[in-house]
Specification:
Number of helices: 10
Order of helices and strands: EHHEEEHHHHHHHH
Strand content: 5-15%
Distance between the termini: 30 Å
Bound molecules: zinc ion
Largest sheet: 2 strands, parallel
Number of strands: 4
Helix content: 40-55%
């Protein structure tokens, strides 16, 4: 796992070179003496603030950034890079009362069981020993393992129009929908799974 905190603070050239390893799972380094390729299969996780001051959208504190400063900040992450990130989640500030409350969410042991069940579904799907998983399916696998009913297909069609999704994003939505269905223990990808996958896509925030 590669975790980039404060992602926009990394230089544009650093972020741009992430494209190749994210797509091909290898990284190629060229020097005068020659070119070497190394395996680079990782999950990318990035965190960023909504704006330079960090308070945009905060219910209690006012953001003082100009819209051009916010624009410049967000544009540090290029469209093609954001396109390769399947799950975009906003994490609003958590109030102290909630953090200190005694009620707890789902236990991680229960989540782990669900993840392990979804992994074994994938092992059965792609064959024991296969390196293919939902996230690395090629177009042929996607056709075979991600059939959509009419309602789901309609959802993807209108999302492609409204969110201006690329062909790459389209395939990513199907693969993520497959995983959401697996986590829910469903053999079929249902409209709710596809709707959830679409909802994680990046959308213009302005
Ligand atoms: Zn701000």
């Amino acid at each position: 796992m590669l975790f980039l905190d404060e992602m926009p603070e990394f230089g544009q050239n650093v972020l741009e070179v992430l494209g190749q390893p994210l797509e091909d799972k290898i990284v190629t380094i060229s020097r005068a003496a020659g070119t070497l390729s190394f395996p680079a299969d990782f999950i990318l996780i990035g965190a960023m603030n909504p704006c330079p001051c960090g308070y945009r959208g905060d219910p209690t504190k006012e953001c003082r950034c100009s819209s051009s400063a916010i624009d410049r900040y967000q544009k540090r992450l290029s469209g093609p890079l954001l396109d390769r990130i399947d799950i975009h989640v906003e994490a609003p500030r958590v109030e102290y009362e909630k953090l200190s409350a005694s009620t707890t969410g789902e236990r991680s042991g229960a989540i782990r069981e669900r993840v392990e069940a979804a992994r074994s579904v994938q092992r059965r799907r792609f064959g024991e020993g296969s390196t293919v998983q939902n996230g690395t399916m090629g177009p042929g696998d996607i056709r075979r393992h991600c059939p959509l009913d009419d309602a789901s297909a309609g959802l993807v069609r209108s999302a492609m129009r409204q969110l201006n999704l690329s062909a790459r994003a389209y395939h990513r939505v199907l693969k993520l929908g497959r995983t959401i269905a697996d986590l829910a223990g469903s053999e079929d990808i249902r409209p709710a799974h596809i709707a959830e996958a679409i909802q994680y896509r990046r959308r213009e925030t302005n």
